[in-house]
User: Fold this.
Amino acid sequence: MSLPPLWNMECLTWRIPLFTNNSDPGEDPGFAPPESWAQALAAVAQDLRCLRFGAEVVVDRLIWEFSINSDYNVTIGWQGARDIGGFSYFNALSMDTAFADAAVWVADIVQTKLAGYDFVQWPSRGRHLLVPRLRDGEPVWMDPHGDVTISRIGELCKNSTNYAAT
Assistant:
């Protein structure tokens, strides 16, 4: 039995620590990943530091795995760590995807994986799970109960005490 063509494709893969205090330097194919994706991964990582509820997970040692296949589509994920599961997700988004679209996609995937596998509600505003969306071309976290923009993706922790619970 042969594997589907997707699994046989050559890929460029970067291993990027979620946080600069991670002692693992990561690895890359000798050049930087597309800037819009690097910024999207960094923005979502920054937001992972706040408004997490549920099982206690330590995200400081996680390392993004970002790949581009031979069709120039991306896969994101991370390997599991001590108290958090790993994942890898592909959805045929292009390496040329703009930052705003990439940030919303990454945030949505991470939120889904954390809730589904690690029983973590992130980000949560009281009883309301925030959702990543594009609003006026900007990637934001929204409270769907009232259609309220809470924060730009990547800036969730800046004022999280102002909206942690309502």
About this structure: Residues 99-118 form the longest helix (20 residues).
